[in-house]
């Protein structure tokens, strides 16, 4: 198996080869070509890479699977960024990733992220999933799957093991609070995400819970909000607790219905180019409260920050997860794909929340008191 370090090197070689071949070739002599000085200098700089490739092919103790080398090298290229959110996925891994954004897959139902401490970190368990029922919590670290040690760099491997045929079992070992290890045997099941739930609470206050932002979330939200408005709700509580985020366009559509004309979020790339996502004048005309906690991440934080900075509602609960980076997801011709961090995002008031999260307007540590606090807050504002 190629080492991580060599994988990075070989991955760079592949990119370099492609770059050289696209440069202007000045003259060809049979199987030889005359290239520009710039191209030759680039070749000399990375000559070691070609040599290492040949060493592997000539000396590795068994036959080498060329596709595994290619995949490993490209993974190494992304790992060289030292960014837990940028990742190359082979065809199988990318298909699995896209299944989640489409709203269904078979597994244990936990949202995880590569933690900056090197551990696979649970953002949140999906409500009513096997992982949720087994007691997995936000900020738990998954350190073993079926008895095998796993780290953040092997998250794709861990995911592929945790997913599997519904009805089969997988053993998970978690590290909690940095000191307690817990073994869990969890039975996989088909996870069909219903991302939006709603009901009418006391004093005719509407309640909508969003568990994640997938391809259908905005439409589901619009439909259920219209049903609540038809019942003449006096206020709205939006529950984003343990919502790990998801698709930005879905978050944008939902936020646009909650706040008036203004900025939802803005992003900035490495060149300083800024892009603003805006909302129009149309919005709900009832008091709004948003419930958040440590499991509220990414798109959930964008929505929460927009509500807070535009003064359209109150945030209640505990400090959010703190993910202020934007990833571009792209597919490649062979069915593989990648996530690449392309920009940072800022709340409308210019706050960069990465690594620190958003502190609610009203901090309520007791989980059982968060919803009642939101209800009382809405009651005070009912016209």
From TrEMBL:
CDD domains reported for this sequence: cpPDZ_CPP-like, Peptidase_S41_CPP
A Pfam family reported for this protein in Swiss-Prot or TrEMBL: CtpB_N-like
SMART domains: PDZ, TSPc
Entry keyword set: Hydrolase, Protease, Serine protease
PROSITE patterns in alphabetical order: PDZ
SUPFAM superfamilies: ClpP/crotonase (SSF52096), PDZ domain-like (SSF50156)
Domain (PDZ) ranges: 97-163
UniProt cross-references to InterPro entries, sorted A to Z: ClpP/crotonase-like_dom_sf, CtpA/B_N, PDZ, PDZ_sf, Peptidase_S41A, Tail-specific_protease
Family membership: Belongs to the peptidase S41A family.
PANTHER family: CARBOXY-TERMINAL PROCESSING PROTEASE CTPA, TAIL-SPECIFIC PROTEASE
Protein name per Swiss-Prot or TrEMBL: S41 family peptidase
Taxonomic path: Bacteria, Bacillati, Bacillota, Clostridia, Peptostreptococcales
């Amino acid at each position: 198996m190629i080492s991580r370090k060599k994988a990075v090197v070989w991955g760079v070689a592949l990119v370099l080869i492609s770059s050289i071949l696209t440069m202007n070739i000045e003259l060809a002599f049979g199987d030889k070509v005359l290239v520009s000085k710039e191209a030759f200098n680039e070749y000399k700089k990375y000559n070691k890479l070609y040599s290492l490739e040949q060493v592997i092919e000539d000396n590795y103790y068994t036959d080498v699977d060329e596709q595994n080398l290619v995949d490993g090298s490209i993974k190494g290229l992304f790992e060289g960024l030292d960014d837990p959110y940028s990742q190359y996925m082979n065809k199988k891994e990318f298909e699995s990733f896209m299944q989640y954004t489409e709203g269904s897959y078979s597994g244990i139902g936990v949202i995880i992220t590569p933690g900056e401490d090197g551990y696979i970190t649970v953002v949140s368990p999906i409500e009513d999933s096997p992982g949720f029922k087994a007691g997995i919590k936000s900020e738990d670290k998954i350190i073993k799957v079926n008895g095998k040690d796993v780290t953040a760099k092997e998250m794709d491997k861990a995911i592929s093991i945790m997913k599997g045929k519904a009805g089969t079992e997988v053993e998970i070992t978690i590290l909690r609070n940095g000191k307690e290890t817990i073994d869990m045997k969890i039975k996989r099941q088909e996870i069909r995400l219903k991302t939006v739930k709603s009901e009418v609470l006391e004093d005719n206050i509407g309640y909508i819970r969003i568990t994640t932002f997938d391809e259908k979330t905005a439409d589901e939200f619009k439909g259920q909000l219209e049903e609540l408005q038809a019942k003449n709700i006096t206020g709205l509580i939006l529950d984003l607790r343990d919502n790990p985020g998801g698709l930005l366009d879905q978050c944008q559509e939902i936020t646009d219905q909650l706040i008036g004309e203004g900025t939802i979020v803005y992003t900035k790339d490495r060149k300083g180019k800024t892009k603003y996502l805006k909302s129009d004048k149309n919005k709900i005309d009832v008091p709004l409260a948003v419930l958040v906690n440590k499991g509220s991440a990414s798109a959930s934080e964008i929505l929460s920050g927009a509500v807070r900075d535009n003064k359209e509602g109150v945030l209640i609960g505990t400090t959010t997860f703190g993910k202020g980076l934007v990833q571009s997801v792209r597919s490649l011709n062979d069915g593989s794909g990648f996530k690449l961090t392309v920009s940072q995002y800022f709340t409308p008031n210019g706050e960069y929340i990465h690594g620190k999260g958003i502190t609610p307007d009203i901090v309520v540590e007791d989980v059982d008191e968060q919803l009642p606090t939101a209800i009382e807050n809405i009651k005070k504002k009912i016209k």
